[in-house]
Amino acid sequence: MIRMNNKIKNFYGIGDMFFSFMVCIELYFMMVFLTDVLKLNVAMAGTIVSITAMGDLITSFIAGGIVDKSNLKWGKYRSWLLFAPGIASVFFVMEFSGVGSATTAGIVFTICYLISHTLWNIFYTASRALAGAVTDDPTERAHISGRISAWMNAGRIAGSKIVILMIGFFAATFGSGESQLIGYTITALITTVLMCLGYLIHFKITDGYDKPQEATKENATKQTVTIADMFKGVGKNPPLISVLVCEFLRLSGYYMMMALAAYYCKLVLGNPAAIGNLLMAMNICCLIGALCSKTFVTKLGTKMTTVLGMGGAAAMMVVAMMVSPNLTGVTVCLAISQLFYGISFGLTTSLYANAATFAEFSTGKNTAGFIMGLLSFSIKGAIFIRGLIITFVLGFIGYSAEMTVTTQVVGNTSIAFFIIPAVLIAVGILPLMLMKMKDSDVIDMRKEIEARKNVQVSAEAQ
């Protein structure tokens, strides 16, 4: 069986940390950038969010297929980590350039978003597939999954506090008037450079684990994965269907809460600056939860640990609603909620990797790249739904940058921030409960797969 080296155990996920740090600009401030910096009305901003989310969703679906069909110089997965992040970074920075009029800037934002995210989807999928390829043991997969999630949350912790400070600092230093545009541009540039360096580390420490296939007709016939094979890996994979639906609902709730945090602090708390400490507390606890996920897996298994985390997260969101608008109470409740959420979040990669093993066991073809790409598909689908709901919520309350805050606005914003995400996450538990595959089954399937390969090798040698 394949085992991880110590460098991978300790440092795989640094790229994801800087990726998460960079994504904080979009995750927390995309809608704010469109409405408050570019001064677009809610309808146009919502249209941009919907278009970009839909395009992102489509490309995330095909990203895994692109990775599975590739056979590049430095390996199927590793090669993408070497050059794709740098190209994507150019377009990410251009998103926040604010070229021309507000309408022109919105169009440029949309085009650059779609290009950068297409490349993101490919190298993000490659990185997650590579994480599944460095080990085939469920416990080690839980370990690397937890570490990846921990690194990601470390990036979010830093981003939740530092990104807004960077934007303000660079805006004040190099900008003029009240515009924060230059702050967004420079912050995007710096964070993308760090992200590229992080994935270069992934590339280096996995040397020897992902070797390119020999380009011979014999090997091409044996190892070719067709589009039909990829879809069989999904259609004949009940565990994957359960994970996909669960992740879609869980992430929809999470991303909606994160995107509304700035509006909650502004409209309900009357303190826009509170978002820094609130997000930092939430992300620190999410990090702790991710680090603890492996401990719970050894006692409860991957599935029940995920159920525990999601249930606890949803329950504490409801409690937070009850103590709102007390900032201290809300911060404590949401921090505990994210502690639970982190436990489930820490097992995401492990769940998909186990589903990929089931697919190979059922179909005889390794479609890990395509299946790990569906992880990104769930994320993008959740972001798309989040965009629709947020656009509806902001339109419903009649939001504008200079609006008058009423009691009704406070109530509607609170429901959107706490209750809707809690319901989505709670409902996400149901499909996971239908999944029958246990961790011990994954080990047995892996042994069977290896046995089949050994038989095939012996037959070819005779």
From TrEMBL:
The chain crosses the membrane at residues 12-34, 40-67, 79-99, 105-124, 157-175, 181-201, 240-262, 274-292, 304-323, 329-353, 374-401, 413-435. The keyword Acetylation does not apply. InterPro entries: MFS_2 (IPR039672), MFS_trans_sf (IPR036259). Keywords: Membrane, Transmembrane, Transmembrane helix. The keyword Transmembrane applies. It holds the Pfam family MFS_2. This is MFS transporter. It comes from Acetobacterium wieringae. The lineage of its organism: Bacteria, Bacillati, Bacillota, Clostridia, Eubacteriales.
